[in-house]
């Protein structure tokens, strides 16, 4: 900094004002528009234009300087007039401008980098790039999710589905056909090592470049949330080499043409009711059901129920059976247990050797809900549904 004074730095800003039009939009004009987008986003978040002053953070002070320059330059006002839906370039919103001399060197250099692009001056190590500032701002807008308990079961469910293979992750890349239009409420992504859930998508808005955008509510698996723009999430996922899209839950090739991994190509879903005198069973006998899948005869499967802890060491009643053909039994059973997972009952039973066992296939679910699940499996509409114990019905995943 010893070889530069503030007059020379101001001259760099003046260079920013020189037109470079060669037909179409120049790189400098694109930078001007991108910088103006940052200011617009600040206004959307805070409900006011950025202002000068020691009380503001560094981003607000830089945005205030940038806005002053955009207002002062006729070329910039003309370029941005069509994008200025907030009236930022009018005098009515203008905040008292801080003279350039009142800024310290770091602030000036950072502003120069955002406005004038790369130069020897802007390569100082302690000066952050415009991209870094934008990323830092987006991270800084994350805050604690006050109702995270509502979303926590969703993250746990997604992890279980990834483990069981009902969901998979795919790279978020442009050549795979993914675009911002495909970011919808109810979708999950992996960003920065955290699972991100798009809880809601706001009303469409028009971005300065003419594309459609929207404000999102994104909840993260670490208990935070942010309200970044759809385009910002898309941009972050493209840049993150480990960024992934988590697919919607699916049965995969449930109804397969051939065996897979040793599974039989046909099976039977069975629903059982226990005759045990266990207090939990007695209190919920009419809605406590074991739901499983077998390739063999159901009667033979339950013939030794009274000595099998899987069947609660008691005789059982066969309530319903559903035959399905050309089906991958393992994936079918995983799917059923995913649907009714929130209604699973943990009952500890001692086996015939006195060892405690906790069977995993007993659920507090009415029979009509099981019937609906089977019908949706048959017609292929089960994707995205889970059982809602509050309504005792199946609900779409995005609506729970």
In short:
This protein is α+β, with helices and mostly antiparallel strands and 400 residues long. It has helices at 6-16, 27-46, 58-72, 74-80, 105-116, 130-140, 148-164, 230-239, 279-283, 298-301, 329-339, 367-379; strands at 143-144, 169-171, 188-191, 194-201, 205-206, 212-213, 216-220, 224-226, 244-246, 266-274, 288-294, 316-325, 349-350, 356-357, 362-364, 385-388, 393-396.
Question: How would you describe what is shown here?
Answer:
It is built from twelve helices and 17 strands. The chain has 400 residues and is of the alpha+beta class. It folds into three domains: 6-140, no CATH class; 143-246, SH3 type barrels; 266-399, no CATH class. The strands form five sheets. The chain has a seven-stranded antiparallel β-sheet with strand order 1-8-7-4-3-9-2, sandwiched between helices. It has a four-stranded antiparallel β-sheet with strand order 12-10-11-15. The chain has a two-stranded antiparallel ribbon with strand order 5-6. A hairpin with a 2-residue loop joins strand 3 (188-191) and strand 4 (194-201). Helix 1 runs parallel beside helix 5, helix 2 crosses helix 3 (58-72) and helix 3 (58-72) crosses helix 4. The longest helix is centred in the N-terminal third of the chain and has 20 residues, at 27-46. Mean pLDDT is 75; it is low at 15-23, 92-128, 135-140, 175-181 and 256-265.
């Amino acid at each position: 900094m010893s070889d530069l004074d503030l007059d020379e730095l101001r001259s760099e800003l003046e260079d920013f004002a020189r037109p470079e039009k060669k037909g179409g939009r120049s790189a400098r004009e694109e930078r001007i528009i991108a910088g103006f987008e940052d200011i617009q986003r600040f206004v959307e978040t805070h409900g006011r234009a950025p202002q000068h002053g020691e009380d503001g953070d560094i981003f607000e002070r830089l945005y205030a300087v940038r806005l002053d320059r955009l207002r002062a330059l006729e070329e910039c006002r003309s370029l941005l007039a069509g994008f200025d839906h907030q009236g930022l370039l009018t005098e009515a919103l203008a905040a008292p401008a801080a003279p350039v001399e009142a800024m310290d060197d770091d602030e000036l250099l950072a502003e120069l980098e955002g406005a004038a692009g790369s130069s020897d001056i802007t390569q100082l190590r302690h000066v952050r790039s415009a991209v870094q500032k934008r990323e830092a701002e987006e991270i800084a807008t994350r805050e604690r999710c006050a109702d995270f308990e509502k979303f926590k079961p969703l993250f746990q469910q997604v992890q279980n589905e990834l483990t069981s293979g009902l969901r998979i992750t795919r790279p978020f890349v442009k050549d795979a056909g993914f675009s911002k239009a495909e970011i919808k409420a109810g979708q999950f992504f992996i960003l920065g090592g955290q699972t991100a859930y798009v809880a809601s998508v706001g009303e469409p808005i028009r971005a300065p470049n003419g594309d459609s955008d929207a404000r999102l509510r994104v909840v993260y698996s670490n208990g935070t949330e942010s309200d970044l723009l759809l385009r910002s999430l898309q941009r972050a996922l493209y840049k993150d080499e480990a960024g992934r899209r988590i697919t919607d839950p699916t049965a995969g090739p449930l109804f397969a043409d051939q065996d897979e991994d040793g599974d039989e190509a046909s099976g039977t879903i069975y629903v059982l009711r226990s005759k045990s005198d266990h207090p939990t069973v007695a209190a919920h006998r009419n809605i406590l059901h074991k739901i499983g899948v077998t390739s063999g005869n159901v009667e033979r499967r339950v013939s030794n129920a009274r000595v099998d802890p899987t069947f609660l060491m008691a005789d059982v009643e066969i309530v319903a059976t559903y035959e399905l053909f050309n089906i991958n039994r393992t994936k079918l059973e995983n799917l059923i247990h995913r649907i009714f997972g929130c209604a699973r009952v943990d009952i500890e039973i001692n086996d015939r050797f006195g060892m405690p066992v906790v069977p995993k296939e007993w659920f507090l679910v009415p029979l009509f809900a099981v019937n609906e699940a089977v019908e949706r499996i048959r017609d292929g509409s089960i994707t995205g549904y889970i059982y809602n114990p509050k309504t005792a019905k199946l609900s779409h995943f995005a609506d729970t």
